[in-house]
Amino acid sequence: MTDMVGSALIRRHIGRRFVALRVRAGITQDQAAIALQRARATLGRIEEGHEHVRFRDVDVKAMLELYGADREESQLLMALTAETRNGPKKSWWHDFTETTIPEWGVFYLTLENSAETIRAYESELIPGLLQTRAYAEEIHKVPAGYADEEKARRLVDVRMKRQKLLTRPRAPHLTAILNEAVLRRPVGGNAAMAEQLRHLLDVTQQANVSARIVPFSVGAHGGMGAISPFVLFDFPVDQYAGEPLEPPLAYSDSLTGARYLTKPDEVSAYNLVWDDLDQRALNEAESTKMITEAWKGFSDA
Predict the structure, then answer these.
(1) Which of 99-103, 148-152, 225-229, 260-264 has the lowest average pLDDT?
(2) Distance CA 79, CA 75 (A)
(3) Closest CA to 233 of 86, 119, 148, 127
(4) What domains, with CATH codes, occur in the chain?
């Protein structure tokens, strides 16, 4: 279980369940800390899903007893906390984090690696999971001076490694909706763009990957109102709890930061935008035809 969904998400799920039990019992965090003879900061880290919390059975049982958890809830949390002691394999991106990936980017990789479905809207470029190396290298050249040659190389290496999740066992399903402009801009020149579009056609032959195009002809569409391109994540159901390990989440980023949106009204707003894009985008067959025509255009240029 830990390898599939990621220790970080398990811990966040545990934390939310402990908060719900404590609140239902009418106990404040300060009161719980006194009763359990634990530091309030320690309880805070547990409830926030901090990665360095060590769950001992004796401590978990004490919390469950204090909060009045029933047998089913107790069995669930004992099983989940035990999962955190199973020593999951080190994530592949560990070696990159200190010098290349910002903290907010590490959390994104955790989400991406744990998701069951990924829905991505892009208005200007091919999504990272579907890029060729040449295309990615060109993207990381701009703006000039933002990343030196070595950092740009490492960022591209990260992007290429990310793509392996699409072919692993229990791979997530990726649906990309792209503005037609993505097909028309010759990133890296005609040859590089032809290679990229050929790759897009090839990878969308996989059952778990699809790409659809919003053509210029549809006029206004929901994606025009979004601040930036965005990604929607849905997560697998926890085998113990029978519910998603993490609530649905909307993500958008910028050059220097990212927004992780989990409030129901926030996620709902992005789902409305997605539904509008879904209705206006060409179907898969029509999209493949448009991508193919664009590929041939760059190949013949």
Answers:
(1) 99-103
(2) 6
(3) 119
(4) 2-83 (1.10.260.40), 94-300 (3.30.870)
